[in-house]
Amino acid sequence: MASSTTVPLGFHYETKYVVLSYLGLLSQEKLQEQHPSSPQGVQQDTVSQSLDQEVLLKVKTEIEEELKSLDKEISEAFASTGFDRHTSPVFSPANPDSSVEDCLAHLGEKAAQELRAPLLGALQTLLSRPVTYQAYRECTLETTVHASGWNKILVPLILLRQMLLELTKRGQEPLGALLQFGVTFLEDHAAEYIIQQGGWGTVFNLESEEECPTGTAEDSNDIYILPSDGSTHVSPPESPTTATASWQAESLPVSLSASQSWHTESLPGLGTQEKEDKEEGVSCLN
């Protein structure tokens, strides 16, 4: 499965890293039990906790391998692409104690609170169907209708994270397929917005009154266990980030030019764009 939208190669690398790193936060979480009371009581909880730890270890190992593969791909292609991780705010943040995935997790926690009901509905629908890109795309687009600004970007990541956990618990190995789902969706439906906002590095500046967490993020944006109280709406910054990257907006193809700048409150590609899905009806998982 490949994206139907042409994006700068540096943006592609950063998007793949963002998806992998965001999914990798699962292995750092302290999962809370999501099972109803049962006659088995503590015994059931103990078995579940053991299963969760096995799942997280498996996910962590798989993601580490994917990140190594991406690192190798970037290094081998440097001579022809010129993409340098050291000039990318995603791979090399200005503050070494922060990371793009930690900031996204912090923002994702708020987004999951605000969009709890539509996210839960989308997840239940996805887990009840064969796992295909078409199903993921449709459910994600339907959910983003309820969001605005960068929350629209967080929706696909939040859904991917929950799908990864639940499908791995079922004994499946969904990481490869879900990684492609996320990269393809973000490049096809969100690349223009992200690039016009200043790139993925913009997430470091999204909350002017709050600092993104440093070090390991321990909070989960698991939509099953979030509190029901609301939270302050996350608005995008007034101006794009000034962090430099090895790809420049000036080199964007016509389809991603500044003349088609997206608005903050609505993403033209989200919820209205109708594309032919090459993967329609084909299951990506066994």
From TrEMBL:
Phylogenetic placement of the source organism: Eukaryota, Metazoa, Chordata, Craniata, Vertebrata
Annotated GO biological process: apoptotic process; regulation of apoptotic process
Biased composition (Basic and acidic residues): 273-286
Coiled-coil annotated residue ranges, if any: 53-80
Biased composition (Polar residues): 229-264
Alphabetically ordered keywords of this record: Apoptosis, Coiled coil
Positions of the Bcl-2 Bcl-2 homology region 1-3 domain: 104-200
Region spans: Disordered: 212-286
Provenance organism: Moschus moschiferus (Siberian musk deer)
SUPFAM superfamilies: Bcl-2 inhibitors of programmed cell death (SSF56854)
Protein family (similarity comment): Belongs to the Bcl-2 family.
Alphabetical list of Pfam families matching this protein: Bcl-2
Name used for this protein in its record: Bcl-2 Bcl-2 homology region 1-3 domain-containing protein
Signal peptide boundaries: none
